[in-house]
Specification:
alpha+beta; 11 helices; 8 strands; binds flavin-adenine dinucleotide
């Protein structure tokens, strides 16, 4: 590694020169978040300029190897980059399930050809991915999944249904769990497959959330033909890949506990709270919990990057981060009074609070429910008898 202080100075100079002013404020809504893809929707030229600039250095995935489109940075350099971005409030240049979920799984389980093919596309934001795990009869009990994948000699044939597939209607490709052996015990007959959502036989139907948004879909596969080389890892051992990826998904979701730049609710609602000592005490407690979560999160990420994290640690972080985010939005609603319930006005202004509050109800479901995370913590971290 280069000397940390020179790396910090160079990084600071580069960010100052390349991060457009519009990208130095927090994302306010979905349109401020750049997801890339074959048909990317850029809100303004600055969004594209920022994504391309970061991708050109491999800094959309700073700690991935350079051969796979990454920045080749050490854990310490990656941390410095994050600190320098936070210093100027630089926005995440690319939101991507490819980066947060599929990429780490490919780095561990993909063949060399798969890594060289898929990872640079992910790093450059060229392909938008969705996650085909849950099915109508397989959520918490994911290993019960029934999507059928048959070996037809020169291709795989996939039939079945997924549900709650986030952004399936916008995604270019899917990473999908399929059953390749119906006779084996349920965890041992699953494989991990990648395919193009534009393949004949793939269709999606959006599902409306209580918040009024529709970020996910039912996804149907009818005789979808998939090239043989798009299976990741070993046939019938996809459960290992699935579990590893879930750890990264839970780590990503836990980030919502940080609350963006970690603004203090007490500071945000200071004046409103003057006459309400009970609410003031609740908000003070929340701010302390948020600081504790931030410290725990930093320690966890440091341990993860050097391979010293307990494998079940993402469950702890996911549980804590999502419950904290739900608590934040309960307090925002309480402090906002009846005007926070406003629903019909522009979603990016007043109508936002109530919709965001309702959206957080899903935080402790997506990526595995809080009850399931507590079960994992009891069994694998606390090693409680009978858990
Ligand atoms: C916003 C959102 C986005 C999502 N995005 C995706 C996606 O992109 N791709 C994807 O594949 N899936 C996605 N999901 C699905 C998500 O992973 C599942 O909803 C989740 O795993 C729970 O499964 P389920 O809905 O079938 O509920 P169930 O498994 O039917 O659970 C129902 C209730 O029973 C409880 N329960 C079940 N088992 C246990 C147990 N062993 N111990 C204690 N309690 C238990 C649960 O905690 C829950 O309260 C998303 C979900 C949401 C809400």
């Amino acid at each position: 590694m280069t000397d940390p202080e020179s790396f910090r100075a160079e990084t600071r100079t580069w960010l100052e020169a390349n991060c457009p002013a519009e990208m130095r404020e927090p994302a306010r809504d979905e349109s401020d978040m750049c997801w890339g893809g074959r048909n990317p929707a850029f809100k303004n030229p600055a969004q594209k300029q920022w994504m391309d600039a970061m991708a050109s250095r491999g800094w959309t995935v700073p700690d991935w190897p350079k051969d796979y489109g990454g920045g080749g940075l050490s854990p310490a350099e990656t941390k410095i980059l994050g600190q320098e971005m936070a210093r100027i409030n630089a926005r995440n240049p690319l939101y991507s399930f490819g980066i947060s979920m599929l990429g780490p799984a490919l780095l561990k389980y993909g063949s060399e050809e798969q890594k060289l093919h898929y990872l640079p596309q992910i790093a450059r934001g060229e392909i938008r991915w969705c996650q085909g795990y849950s099915e109508p009869g397989a959520g918490s009990d994911l290993a019960s999944l029934q999507t059928k994948c048959e070996d037809k000699g020169d291709h795989w044939l996939v039939n079945g249904q997924k549900v709650w597939t986030s952004y399936a209607d916008k995604a270019d490709w899917i990473f999908c769990l399929v059953r390749t052996d119906f006779q084996a015990p349920k965890h041992q007959g699953i494989s991990f497959l990648l395919f193009d959502m534009a393949s004949p036989g793939v269709s999606t139907r959006p599902i409306l959330l209580i918040s009024g948004y529709s970020p996910f879909c039912e996804t149907f596969f009818d005789d979808v033909q998939v090239p043989k080389d798009q299976l990741v890892g070993t046939l019938n051992r996809g459960w290992d890949v699935a579990k590893y990826l879930l750890g990264h998904e839970r780590e990503m979701i836990s980030g919502m506990g940080l609350g963006g730049q970690g603004e203090s609710l007490g500071a945000a609602f200071g004046e409103v709270l003057a006459d309400d000592p009970l609410l003031r005490a609740d908000i003070a407690r929340f701010d302390v919990d948020q600081l504790a979560f931030r410290a725990m999160s930093e320690k966890f990420i440091d341990e993860l990057k050097v391979g010293r994290a307990h494998p079940a640690q993402p469950s702890m972080m996911k549980y804590a981060g999502t419950e904290l985010n739900k608590a934040r939005h309960e307090l925002v609603m309480a402090a906002g009074g009846s005007s926070a319930l406003e629903w019909e006005s522009d979603r990016s202004a007043n109508g936002k609070k109530a919709r965001e509050w309702l959206r957080t109800k899903a935080n402790s479901i997506e990526g595995g429910t809080s009850e399931v995370q507590l079960g994992i913590i009891a069994k694998r971290i606390l090693e409680l008898p009978g858990a």
